[in-house]
Amino acid sequence: MDPLWKKAKDNPSASANLLSKIFFCWLNPLFSIGYKRKLEEDDMYKVLPEDASDKLGEELQWYWNREVQQAEKDLCPPRLAKVLVQCYWRSYALIGIYIFIEEVIKVIQPLLLGKIIEYFESSDPTNTAAVYEAYSYAGGFSLLTVVLAVLHHLYFYHVQRAGMKIRVAMCHMIYQKALCLNSKAFAKTTTGQIVNLLSNDVNKFDEVTLYLHFLWIGPLQAAIVIFLLMYAIGPSCLAGMAIFFILMPVQTMFGQLFSSLRAETAVLTDDRIRTMNDVISGIRVIKMYGWEKPFAALVDEVRRMEISKIMKSSFLRGLNMASFFVANKIIVFITVCVYVLTGNQLSASRVFMAVSLYGAVRLTITLFFPFAIEKISESLISIRRIQNFLLLDEVAPQHLGLPVAEKDCMVKIQDLICYWDKMLEAPTLQNVSFTVRPEQLLVVIGPVGAGKSSLLSAILGELSQESGVVKVKGQLTYASQLPWILPGTIRSNILFGKELNPQKYDRVLRACALKRDMDLLQGGDLAIVGDKGANLSGGQKARVSLARAVYQDADIYLLDDPLSAVDAEVGRHLFEECICGLLRKKPRILVTHQIQYLKAADQIVVLKQGQMMARGTYSELQSSGLDFTTLLKEEEGQEGERQGATPFPGTVSHFPHTHSDNAMSSMSSLSSSLYSLTDGAEPLTMAVQPMEEESRSVGNVGLRLYVKYFKAGANFLVLLVLILLNALAHITFVLQDWWLACWASEQKHINVTEHLNGSFPRQLDLDLYLGVYAGLTASSVVFGFLRSLVFFNVLVSSAQTLHNSMFDAILRTPVHFFNINPIGRILNRFSKDIGYLDSLLPWTFVDFIQVFLQVIGVIAVAAVIIPWILIPVAPLLAVFLFLRCYFLQTSRDIKRLESTTRSPVFSHLSSSLQGLSTIRAFKVQQRFQQMFDGYQDLHSEAWFLFLTTSRWFAVRLDGICSIFVTITAFGCLYLGDGLEPGAVGLALSYSMTLTGMFQWGVRQSAEIENMMTSVERVVEYAELESEAPWETDKQPPHDWPEAGSITFDRVNFSYSASERLVLKNLTVGFTSREKVGIVGRTGAGKSSLISALFRLAEPEGRITIDGFLTSEIGLHTLRQKMSIIPQDPVLFTGTMRKNLDPFRQHTDEDLWNALQEVQMKAVVEDLPNKLETMLTESGSNFSVGQRQLVCLARAILRKNHILIIDEATANVDPRTDSLIQKTIRDKFQECTVLTIAHRLNTIIDSDRILVLDAGRIQEYDEPYVLLQNQEGLFYQMVQQTGRAEATSLLYAAKQVYMNKKRVTDMHCAKDICAVFETSL
Predict the structure, then answer these.
(1) Which H or E run contains 1096?
(2) Which of 967, 1000, 1022 is at the close of a domain?
(3) What is the span of the domain harbouring residue 1317?
(4) Can you give the pLDDT at residue 271?
(5) Considering only CA atoms, which of 559, 475, 474 is closest in space to residue 512?
(6) Sign of the torsion angle spanned by Cα atoms 983, 986, 989, 991
(7) Residue range 815-832: average pLDDT?
């Protein structure tokens, strides 16, 4: 909650001098630190003030608001693209000056090259003037190369920063919007989609700014080059340019095809990641149900479609790259053919001048210009998506309640009608009216799905009203039904941005029964809680959430079922000390299922199906005899018994140890004098489970990994063919130019000899030269294309193989893995890392290999022509290797910092979206926005370094290249006695291409290394240890387990080898058809007993079911033969049918019958497509209670002989609760049923009760027998529920005992008769 922004160092670029800015020297200190040790967050520099998130965001927001108002006036939709242009055009236009100068230089260089070659053609050593002239040309040539290098990187640095600014501003706006979305908007968007906007769509701005200027530079440059070519080789240049202009639309077409494929792929990727999210969130349940296969099939199907699209787009990419690679060859070929065939004679100076001029425009026209068009079309799609998001409905601006006197605050509701979804005929709420004044407690009750939570949403303004009045005077605060915990400390969760006032804080902790828990947790209230409060039990989360509301000290309290997550004792403590204690002066609205508290209410509202059935005090309602009394009727008989009716919330806890076993047990709150919690027991298993740090692999990526990566995509033979193709493509590539040089030199010789002899002119054998030339050109084209396509094919299939093996490994790994790794981290491997493997890595690899081979070609050519060049090349190579190693040390850390600082931005967004209603109720949007900006700035610091360090490196690399060019240029002149002009032309024009290309190749190689860490991370997950096999040879009979008897024999159990035992030496037997209740305090090992039975981790000792050792059977065989109703009801995104029966084993009739049994038939029939209705993200269109009923229906369908219930009667009103109990008694009469209970009345009628404490068995017998032992743990637990409750529990236990005794007595009598008769 309270991120401690570290004092970052001031940014040196602000105060650097001109030279330092040009060569990025101000980064030197950072590099020397990075070379010595690993860079940490404190080493990063502060964001420049003009890059700060809040400033940028506010600025863009101002333009956007202005546009929205203007659009309302003009009655047209507002346009985000226009806003971006208005906001950024000035600063962006200025950067164009750099690129303009750079492109002019690129055109001047070939002219100087031509002059140098001309000197060789008319070489006359005696003419000193000509020699000096040649040297001055060479000097100019070299100088321009240096200037080019510098300008190029300044331009890119500035445009990338411009892109960063737009991205940051956009993110700020998206987050600000997300905080204001209303329920209608959430029907149109999902959390995943918003995260996607923030992770993918805004990145388009980083890319589009790079190329935008080329839209005008491209055509301009082309015009100048045509003009110069006309001067050099006359009209035949038009033939070559024509090819350029044919290539452009072709590439643009490729680009459009490509982006349409991208769009299709993106939809499938979203789909796959959503399914993955479901699978990982519900992994415990999937494992216990043995449902891995249908889910694997689901992901597999989406992934197959995604890969086929990716394959297509990769082939397009391959064609595009190859056409780029061979374009130059074809153009020069056509130009030369036309030039020669129109009767001109080749001369080296002209040919190579033309080649270089083509080279100068080649990049701009065939790459950057189409890129600009492609990126613009892509970013327009993104802008449209963001624009649609920014135009979604917002909640009505919240009446920031004026501070009112305490006596004036109130909530008044009159004839309220609300809809969540207009499609459904029935309104969510109708004709609700009431008023709550200070010191009044209004209790809202009603069956599951009655609209109780919706009522609170309406008061909060989350649910817009159709008609009626909601009047709120005073400040609201709210405790939600599913407690929302932010990552951070427990204290920060309770303070929630308020100042710490120790006395008040202490009072709140006491009132919310948290004092005891704080003492037990390591680190007390400064203990760190993970994602979604993962390491707290359900009860603790509920109480932290309540404490947060109480600490806010608002005027009006809305409490959504805070009592359901805790056991009776704590529940009563919360009710008396907190709701009717600390808060007694305030107006309070409490939603609850706990009927025993109704007498304390000032008024009661009864809701049913969104209608208010009754309103009044307890006595009024009792006398009116409304449906309310039937809610009560069930209670009367068990009046005492029901006080313990603590249903359990659907808290989503991912930590099995601390599965929301009732709050830290009643004693914790009242530390009752009976005995201390840790009496003789070991310290609680509540120790917070630390999240494992994400492993950041340090250092280089090994060669083994590359081998693995390639091996995953193809076999050895294919790889060999690939290597051959690459070699051939480049050899023909160089030979083609070489042949041209020979041809030109030969022509010169003929001219010279003719000149000397004056005899008849000798003709060159045109057919021979042209024929060979055409052959070489054709082969370089063919090999170029083949090489690209094969390469892409291999790499994409490798991505597919790796994804499959990773997914398989994830499905097969033990549950423990998911407890120590947060969902986000696992999902990141499936989204970001697999995304790299799919598209970016193959492209980068192919590109790198291409460039690398070209660079080798350049050096080889130069070395053949002037062998002396190899002498200076060696030290240059050494400098280069050192630079690369020096740079990568730092760059790798910065890249890592960039990705680690990126994740808080996303996790902050997703946790904000989960707790949206809470954030709004507490009116802390402003603070969350600031936190978001803080996280953004932290990421910008890393991103800024990432940009500048890569420029630092590139400038230095291009420096090395300019030295090489200079050496070549002067080398030719100095050592150039008797050099052919063709050879000089070849060497110089080749070395010219080195400048941009070399540093690009090196950066690509670094990129590959960085992206290989993604491969490494995928491989790491693909090699996770796996559970026992799903199927084994030992198959129990088909109808096993027929009897359903379970025995534990000396079982020890812990979730992983490194953790302490949670079950110790457990020996116990459950006989066939027995109903057993399992009780014990938090951390006693109740859930662990179930985990051991299901082998979620391998137990030591023997567990047998009907005589079969569970450790010998396949996991699926075992798990599919037991039904479980889990603690958190998990529904998956998909149809209702898929949720009930993923294997499609049952008929529709079966499904409807099961739904009928749990009284969900009516609800499902009301859905638009009945069983085929898609459930939204994890079934959020059902209330928690309804989800629980669906889970019960699953169990009914499975018809197994063993049923395990993990106290699943959470958030369920007493009617539904008794319905569940009744269904279980009727439908599962023939089954062995184990119930983990938090409320004794649900299990008091069991055949036997197992009492666990700290992983050991304390007692195991019939309930009535256990209650006779006054020293026993069970007796004490019953006493703690209160006198009335205890009496009724004792009475119920006695009834059961007596009934059983009667039955057994009768059996005995019958048996005696039988014996008597047989003996007769």
Answers:
(1) none
(2) 1022
(3) 1292-1320
(4) 82
(5) 559
(6) negative
(7) 81
